[in-house]
Design goal:
about 375 residues; alpha+beta; Alpha-Beta Plaits; Elongation Factor Tu (Ef-tu), domain 3; 6-stranded antiparallel barrel; 8 helices; 19 strands; about 20% helix; about 35% strand; disordered N terminus
Amino acid sequence: MFYFCENFKKMKNTPFTSIHQALGAKMAEFAGYNMPISYTGINDEHAAVRNSIGIFDVSHMGEFILKGEHALDLIQRITSNDASKLSNGKAQYSCFPNNEGGIVDDLLVYCVEENKVYMLVVNASNIDKDWNWIMKHNTNNVEMHNVSDKTALLAVQGPNAVKAMQKLTDMDLINLKYYTFVKGTFAGVENVLISATGYTGAGGVEIYFEDHGNCEEVWNKIMEAGAEFNIKPTGLACRDTLRLEMGFCLYGNDIDDTTSPMEAGLGWITKFTKDFTNRSHIEAQKTNGVERKLVGFEMIDRGIPRHHYHLKTADGADLGYVTSGTQSPSLNKAIGMGYVKSSHAAIGSEIYVEVRDKLLKAVVVKLPFYQG
């Protein structure tokens, strides 16, 4: 998932890179960016977010603004979820289906001004790919702006995150409901968008603002506001363990161009009340079922499942493969997600992970792994 590289000059930096380096973060390449992987260690940072508060730099994510009378129509045609249900200040999780039955990317859709202005938040590794995909379908000349490079994004996560961040704004963050957002002044910066769409399952907010050379000041104010709760800088490594405990998909691991929304358990963001890319194929999968499904599993035997390890039956027959796996810091057990044949996808099914020519027993469990 993370790739260490000696030549950091080829990578993009975020507005906070110098802060991470000054704090002694372990840095590595991720999606073309020089990103902090960990500071004090995965378990320490993971616990900080689960129990109190942590701050993630996720400025590598992509942000597109779509404007105009046909903006909603474009979004409806290229995404699986029903964006017409969104009103001002609401957001939704969705995906871009491709023409072959897979997923171009998963994304967040923010309704800034109903039927007129929307923000799409996409994965860093897919910024160019997604932009080109949307442009390809933009037949009505919807006004589009790629603001990824000038947008700073911090995710302040944990049960004490909202209380700490409320000190820095007059916006009502305490009553901010899941998948909603507000816009206003934060830490002295105007036109800041703050949402509650969390990728950690620990609560908190995401803070979007334009980089005007004030990022270090905003970071410091957040650290000061969170000091009473022992706020910790947190890296992408614990972000991965946190999201996996919640059973949230990571593009490039659990979903990609070859995995359908139905296979990935994303039927809940796939609405057949409208027309969208490859709808007929995906609807047929819903009706007829799929041959494989993404499942969560816990290890019974000792061992950690890793990306692309084979999943098998007790007698060694092939079932599928691991997409994500880790030693869960919260549960103190090894967990994973992977695709298996539908015949072995039921809760309680025994499956085996092939690790160095050994078959280690695991059991399919209900997601999320972490119940909170």
